[in-house]
Amino acid sequence: MKKLRPYSQVIDFLRGSGLRPTRQRLALAKLLFDGDHRHVTAEILHAEALEAGVPVSLATVYNALHQFNKAGLLREIVVEVGRSYFDTNNSYHHHIFNEDSRELTDIEAGQINLTGLPEIAEGQKVSRVDVILRVKNNN
Amino acid sequence: MKKLRPYSQVIDFLRGSGLRPTRQRLALAKLLFDGDHRHVTAEILHAEALEAGVPVSLATVYNALHQFNKAGLLREIVVEVGRSYFDTNNSYHHHIFNEDSRELTDIEAGQINLTGLPEIAEGQKVSRVDVILRVKNNN
DNA sequence: GTGTTTGCAAAGTGTTTGCAATTTA
DNA sequence: TAAATTGCAAACACTTTGCAAACAC
In chain B, how many domains are there? Predict the structure, then answer.
């Protein structure tokens, strides 16, 4: 999902998810996926897009993020009320959340050993397992 | 935390947490802690209080829930944007969250084996570890 | 051309706040 | 009586929606 440099690749990347490569989606995809994994909020991404000279409305950023999420290109993470984080690392992994700085950090899945999860009820399927290590600063 | 029947016990219970036993807090504490563990939202608790004939404002319900949370009488759980759950089970345990019904269910801590959590950075302390098993209904 | 996507502004949701009136100790 | 608590209404932060205009194919 990294190194999407040439625009043609970003276009194919979006097309592969059934999304029309519009100017806005192209710019947002580049910001999100062209480089290291990131944890962004809609507001942050919106600000970055404007800064990069791509006029996008906040509503469109939300639309795009949800479309990317639905397409499996990223993951929505909820750790506090009233704020969604979008994680461009869509492989299985977990998080540290600093409740003071409100910062999210990845924990590699392989590092954690998690067993003994209960059987889920008939007619249900596991959508995801999240481990969130919540930390605070010592005063 | 259960079977608080006599009001005198609820009063002591609140006093023990440094909270004045006001009519509203007494009623809310009874609804929350007198019986089985519960997962409630502020709105649900508010509705229940009104139904029980105790006129409380929603703002006061929020105040009380946060005070109870701060006092360690319950735990706030965030699993989706824009909605807080308050869990009257304040012992260490985890959750199943049904993304369709938006229902929370407890997983006993002893049932899960979780090791390999990373060291946290200098100057930080663990506030909590949450495991959330997200499930969906099959269609 | 047809269907999709955008952007704006407005509405929505759950939560928090300010402050005067009330209640508790 | 002094300090804490309540309730209202207004403010808040973030997100979603409706719909006409713009765009992709």
Answer: 1
Which CATH number covers residue B53? 1.10.10.10
Helix axis angle for A58-70 and A42-51, nearest 10°, is: 120
What is the residue range of B105's domain? 8-135
For residues A71 and A33, the answer to whether their CB atoms sit within 8 Å is no
Residue A118 with chain B: CB contacts under 8 Å: 96, 107, 111, 133
CA of residue B59 to C1' of nucleotide C19, angstroms? 14
Print pLDDT tens along chain A (139 aa). 455 555 667 778 788 888 899 999 999 999 998 888 999 999 999 999 999 999 899 999 999 999 999 988 999 999 999 899 999 998 999 999 999 999 999 999 999 999 999 999 999 999 999 999 999 998 7
Count other Cβ atoms within 10 Å, centred on residue A97.
Answer: 22
* Residue A1 falls inside a structural domain: no
Quick check: is A128 in a domain? Answer: yes
From the CA of A83, how many Å to the nearest CA of chain B? 6
* Residue type, position A15, single letter: R
| Tokens read off for A107 | 């924990």
Which tokens sit at A64? 């795009």
Residue B13 tokens read as: 């219970």
E-strand ranges in chain B read 39-40, 75-80, 83-87, 93-98, 103-108, 113-115, 124-137
Instruction: List b or e across A22-55, with b for residues whose CB sees 16 or more CB atoms inside 10 angstroms.
Output: eebbbbbbbbbbbeebbbbebeebbebbeeeeee
Would residue B24 count as lying in a domain? yes
Specify the pTM. Answer: 0.89
Q: CA–CA separation, B56 vs A6, rounded Å?
A: 60
Asked, for residue B42, whether it belongs to a domain, the answer is yes
